[in-house]
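Section 3.1: Structural characterization of target chains.
Under the original work plan, the team committed to producing a structural model for every single-chain target entering the pipeline before any wet-lab resources were allocated. The record below documents one such target. The sequence was received from the expression subgroup and is listed exactly as submitted; it comprises 99 residues.
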Amino acid sequence: MFFGAEEMQMNSYVIFIKGDESKVIIKKQVTRGISKNLKANGFTRYPYTIDAENEKNALQILNKQGQEHLNTLSEFSGNIFFYCAVLVISLVVALILSR
């Protein structure tokens, strides 16, 4: 252990999202009233808590997770499109050859 070195404390954060706006709150500080008020103002609670060093880091982690999710979804939909295209081409060739 180093003397004078600050140990970074990880907190669990809850994130509420409304369009491009977000509210990041330490999970221990979120009350039913805060949650209800934010939801009444159009915010949606992100379903998972984010463990991070601070609010800025929590948003960076959320953005990274979102980007990874979109990349995975893009790869999946690209693969499905490719398989469907191959299937359609195969069916057209089979139809032409059966005549």
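The helical segments are 32-40, 55-97.
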